[in-house]
Amino acid sequence: MNSVSFTHRLLRQLIHALVLALLLQGCSAVRLGYGNADSLARWWIDQYVDLSPEQDVLLRERLVRFHAWHRKSQLPDYVSLLRQGQKFVAGQPTADDALALGDAVVRRGRALAEQATPDIAEFLATVTPAQIERMAGRQTEKNADYAREAQLADGESGQRKARYKRLLERAEHWFGDFSGEQKSAMRRLIDGQASGSQFWYEERLRRQREWLDLVRLVQRERPPRERVMQLLREYAARFDLPADSARLAQAKALRRAAAELAVAIHAMATPAQRAHAEHKLGDLIRDFSELSQEV
Fold first, then answer.
1. Which site in 2, 123, 209, 227 is 20 to 30 Å from 217, CA atoms measured?
2. Residue 58 pLDDT > 50, yes or no?
3. How far apart are the first and last CA of the chain?
4. Would you tell me how many other CB atoms lie within 10 Å of the CB of residue 112?
5. Closest by alpha carbon to 216, among 290, 105, 109, 130?
6. Could you read off the pLDDT of 161-184 as tens digits, one per residue?
7. Span 47-52, mean pLDDT?
8. Given pLDDT bands bounded at 50, 70 and 90, which one contains residue 21?
């Protein structure tokens, strides 16, 4: 299940349910959420597709199997990733270190995508035209929410303001409360960069268009399962970055700027704040280690 669109949105939901969304909650929520991740993912998918009884049975079986695989094979690997995060917090990281950590998350997302591909291919063979249009409609609704939260209509100034709010919430989750001086410094850093919000919104729309094209092709032509799996893998491969060379260069520049911002925010944290972040990561390491051993 961000950091590799129904296929990828399904995978992202699994990732969120299993890992990323849970990182923003307390330890008890991590354990509770992970234990119910397959049910949460099925509920989310139903919001986009309106599952038939037969699809619900198929999805339930596949998600239970996926969840068991994830618990056994992926949670121990996440512990390794979280330990890298502890080193990042405790040290003096560079932008390259931040980019490497982000790439590590992407690789794990791709592992989830590859594991889920055969089951998603089987599921897509059951999707109806009406369900595809429901997906498109839900995407439109969510896009409106995204645009509003990112303040896209307010231009670059509004987008930077929304970005500041979002990043401050994340920073204070990990490091604890920021002082007024830290907040002012963080705002200056964000104001010194392009927000990238409009660019990433356009990338979001690109991925959605490509996803709907893929699903409609499968529904219309009914290709063999192996062909559908190939299409899904190609979609996942181009999910994270655009194929167009100019947009690819822009995406990489924005990611580099975001990494530099992360390092600058880390540098302004006090020793006590860094210890706070290390402790939170340690709690997650303990939880993931214990969860990986449960049946």
1. 2
2. yes
3. 21
4. 25
5. 130
6. 999 999 999 999 999 999 999 999
7. 94
8. very low
Q: Please report, for the chain, the start and end positions of each structural domain, with discontinuous segments joined by +.
A: 6-293
Residue 29 pLDDT class (50, 70, 90 cuts): low
Are 49 and 211 contacting, i.e. CB atoms less than 8 angstroms apart? no
Give CA 217 to chain center in angstroms: 26
What amino acid occupies position 82? Answer: L
Structure tokens at 130: 């009406």
AA letter at 17: A
Record the pTM: 0.88
Which are the contacts of 4, defined by CB distance < 8 A and separation ≥ 6?
11, 106, 109, 110, 112, 113, 236, 237, 239, 240
Type of residue found at 273: Q
Encode pLDDT of 126-140 as tens digits.
Answer: 999 999 999 999 999
Query: Position of tokens 């234990």?
Result: 35
Pairwise CA distance, residues 166 & 163, whole Å: 5
The angle formed by the CA atoms of residues 261, 266 and 267, to the nearest 5 degrees, is 95
Residues 36-40: what's their mean pLDDT? 83
What mean pLDDT is reported for the chain?
88
Cα–Cα distance, 60 to 113 (Å, whole number)? 18
